[in-house]
Amino acid sequence: MTAEVMAANDTHWDPALSKLIASLKEAESLSNDQEIDFLQTLLESKELNALVNVHSKVAKVGKDDRLAPILSTSGMIMCEVLEQLSQQCHLNEDCREAFHLLQKPHLHSLLYAHDAIAQKDFYPHLPDLPIEMDEDEETIKIVQLVKSNEPLGATIKTDEESGKIIIARIMHGGAADRSGLIHVGDEVIEVNGINVEGKTPGDVLSILQNSEGTITFKLVPSDGRGAQRESKVRVRAHFDYNPEVDPYIPCKEAGLAFQRGDILHIVSQDDSYWWQARRESERTARAGLIPSRALQERRIIHERTQREIGDGESKKGSCTSICSTPPGSPRLRSSSSTSSCRQPKTKKIMYDLTENDDFDRELIATYEEVAKLYPRPGIYRPVVLIGAPGVGRNELRRRLIARDPEKYRSPVPYTTRPMRTGEVAGREYIFVSREKMEADIEAGKFIEHGEYKGHLYGTSAESVKSIVNAGCVCLLSPHYQAIKALRTVQLKPFLIHIKPPEFDELKKTRTDSRAKSTFDESNARGFTDEEFTDMIKSSVRIDFLYGHFFDEEILNADLVTAFEKLVNIVQRVETEPLWAPSSWVQ
User: Fold this and answer.
1) Is the CA virtual torsion 250, 254, 258, 264 positive or negative?
2) Stretches in the chain below the pLDDT threshold 70
3) Please, are residues 401 and 409 in contact by the beta-carbon 8 Å criterion?
């Protein structure tokens, strides 16, 4: 009886397997190791349980007195008995009948099976090597795989030197990988009896596509084959990818589509240009091909170069030319905080980026290696709300502080402007001289700073650290250009992008709530259509430049709904392990 047939029956779990599964579940609660997940799936399979049950029954031979064999040579004894009976057949009818019964093939098979079990001869015997064998003769292996809706999980290519078809890569978790019989570098001789000599990889693919049922490969094993060991690297994707529209991928069917923000498990980086990966949420799925970091960076650089060439051919210096250029183009890196052509009238933000050693590399957003960052009791990650001016991030921050003022706090900003009537030093602002603040800015003591109507404003790094060390949740709502200065291993912030809805909904919700414009402090008025448009454009620009840095997004259409989502997110940050840059964990 085969394992498949036995697995179909209702059998009880073997005690040893049950104990192992329970131990693995305990280990899984402490670790998210991929190998533990694989072992648990294997141990819970019906096929393995059926085989273990068979093994357990056979292993009882010799241990249970009721099943212990009296002898292990019943076949030889049968032959001796037949020899004795043959001499008595003509004298006795019973001897003749016994002689004929003992020659039945079924009885022979039964006795031989008995002897094999009694002798514990359970393992297959390989034939001896021929005495005369050509040392130069190639070893051929024949592999059969059952074709299903699942891809075979292997790609092929033509060897540049020999012109032969060879296995280019094995996709982790695919049918070829699970078989353990096909390896990178194996030479393909035949597919379903069809010789592939002189054929192209496309020809071989056509043979496979037209095959049904079992597919038989005749292969010459590679010299340096070895088991593929999965990498434990996890990355957050910083761009969208669709293999169906990628003209350079070796095999579109083997590609893995993903979106920006997805956590990917990189299982193999053996190929310089094409990594193998699977989504972290699909741990048992077959791995797929994705562009490597080096390949994706080259693509982005090429696209930017082509865009710059196109921009150079257009009319330079005009307002229309600048606005039509995609946000984040290299020649617009030093532009103002909005994407409109109008220059800000009264506000100018300045940021120091010298602390970012990998600034140039991060401009090319590809992948970021991540790991689970576990909450630390009494030490909370700062929560940073980023959004376009007027989107409502400051109102959300104020509401969260009002919900629990002892737990949620914001640092008091510094300023060089004179104190106004009714203000208290250290409550609304910390008032310092311009000379002092400029010296502290030069010393890198501010995570953000800017100038407004001739006065400096800023948030010091020390004030943020003091809130964190006091066991409180530090809430920040800085200008979006402060992201790179904030996103450090020392602060480990959780970044949330507060986004506006579409124009019509944005205008309706702000008008219904009688929201006051934040663009004009001197007049208490509502937002204009132009300000709504600027808000949406600025949000798009923020998403383009820094979207890959955000841990969460909140659409602020309805303030009550947005606040509820913010509360839920902050509670998760305080209690759950979340993905963060691996350097923060190490």
Assistant:
1) negative
2) 1-13, 27-34, 59-68, 120-138, 224-230, 310-363, 521-522, 586
3) yes
Bridge partners (DSSP) listed for residue 220: 187
* Rounded alpha-carbon distances, angstroms, from residue 294 to 2, 39, 299, 361, 364: 48, 33, 9, 11, 11
Helix pair 559-575, 393-403: axis angle to 10 deg = 60
Match 């529209």 to its residue by tokens.
Answer: 245
Sequence-distant (6+) residues with CB within 8 A of 408 are 400, 401, 472, 473, 475
Query: Count of CB atoms within 10 A of residue 536's CB?
Result: 19
Helices (H) and strands (E) in the chain, counts: 20, 22
Q: Which of 223, 209, 198 is nearest to 152 (CA)?
A: 209
User: Strands (DSSP E) along 171-222, which ranges?
Assistant: 187-191, 194-195, 214-220
Contact (Cβ atoms closer than 8 angstroms) between residue 450 and residue 458: yes
pLDDT of res. 322: 25
* Three-state secondary structure call for residue 63: coil
Report pLDDT for 127. Answer: 56
Cα separation, 81 vs 72, in Å, equals 16
> Using CA atoms, how far apart are residues 239 and 259, in angstroms rounded to an integer?
6
DSSP 266-327: EEE--SSSEEEEEETT-TTSPPEEEE-HHHHHHHHHHHHHHHHHHHHHS-SS-HHHHHHSPT
In the β-sheet with 414-415, what is the strand arrangement from edge to edge?
A: 347-350, 446-452, 455-460, 414-415, 430-431
* Cα–Cα distance list, 126 to 55, 68, 130, 229, 481 (Å): 21, 28, 12, 29, 70
Which pair of tokens denotes residue 475?
């809430």
- Do the strands 274-279 and 263-268 form a parallel or antiparallel pair, or are they unpaired? antiparallel
Instruction: DSSP for 66-91, please give it.
Output: TT--S-S-HHHHHHHHHHHHHTTTTT
Instruction: Give me 196's structure tokens.
Output: 């592939």
Instruction: Tell me, letter by letter, the H, E, C secondary structure of 249-263.
Output: CCCHHHECCECCCCE
